[in-house]
Amino acid sequence: MIFLTLLTALSLSGVAAYYSVIGLAQIFPGSFWPVVLMGGVLEASKLVTVSWLYNNWNDTVRAMRYYFSIAVLLLMAITSMGIFGYLSKAHLDSNVTINANTVQIKTLETQEKIAKERLTYLLQRAGDPATASRKIDQQIQETQAELTRLSKEKLPLMAEENKLTAEIGPIKYIAEIFYDKNDASFIDKAVRLVIFTIIIVFDPLAVLLLIAANQTYRKLKAQELEPIEPF
After folding, report:
1. Which ranges of 28-61 would DSSP assign to H, the alpha helix?
2. How far apart are CA 5 and CA 119, in angstroms?
3. Which of 27, 105, 146, 184 is the most exposed place for a label (fewest CB within 10 A)?
4. CA 219 to centroid of chain Cα atoms
5. Sign of the C-alpha dihedral, residues 196, 83, 184, 173?
């Protein structure tokens, strides 16, 4: 149980450290590798500090206990901010793709609307003997060809739109539970809610599991040191 608890704590800490370090590096993209190095060292220091402080709490002067405790809490806050930055960027990247695809579709739909209005106008002129001409017929054919081209260009974009909509389907259903779907930002609000929920249980759980592993180990050692009474 000691090894399982310790392994789980280290696994959670490792994943949290990865998300945190990459997230912090994305917050400060001008110094990517120095921030990665700093974040990695801080994450390792946090785990060592938690373990050392638990095992030496009674033997440590009060000032050190207070400082180490505050430092661990601040490091947990930094880890949470890094995780928030990492997950937020992942959401924003997907939004960029979706928005770019939507803009292309709207542009083609606008061009298609203009072409349809032009075609209607040309057909009216072609149906009037006073304005009918070979030039009008040629313009009608060109407009029809343009509409065909726009439809072909729009088809793969629509397919991609459906694919992207399916990808955000789960978070959309979650958003509809907590927020009004008529709110333009209801999906973003739901994403932030999910991220905050992850943050609440991610790094704090890793730290508490590490303390639990130390506690179980101390109890086991105490049992081993207990004298065995003779029969």
Report:
1. 32-55
2. 72
3. 184
4. 40
5. negative
- Is the backbone of residue 4 left (phi > 0), alpha (psi -120 to 50) or beta? alpha
With 0-12 / 13-18 / 19 or more C-beta atoms within 10 angstroms meaning exposed / middle / buried, residue 113 is exposed
Query: Which range among 77-81, 138-142, 157-161, 227-231 shows the weakest confidence by mean pLDDT?
Result: 227-231
Amino acid at 128: D
Per-residue confidence (pLDDT) for residue 2, from 0 to 100: 75
Distance, in Å, from the CA atom of 208 to the CA atom of 73, rounded to the nearest integer, reads 12
List, for residues 69-101, the tens digit of each pLDDT value: 999 999 999 988 889 988 888 888 877 778 888
Q: Classify the phi-psi angles of 36: left when phi > 0, otherwise alpha if psi is within -120 to 50, otherwise beta.
A: alpha
- Residue 36 CB neighbours (<10 A): 14
DSSP 57: T
| Dihedral sign from CA coordinates of 154, 159, 163, 165 | positive
pLDDT over 90 (residue 173): no
Confidence label for 229 from pLDDT (cuts 50, 70 and 90)? low
Rounded distance, CA 6 to CA 14, Å?
12
Burial class from Cβ neighbours inside 10 Å (0-12, 13-18, 19+) for residue 76 reads buried
In our burial notation (b when 16+ CB lie closer than 10 A, e otherwise), range 87-105 reads bbeebeeeeeebeebeeeb
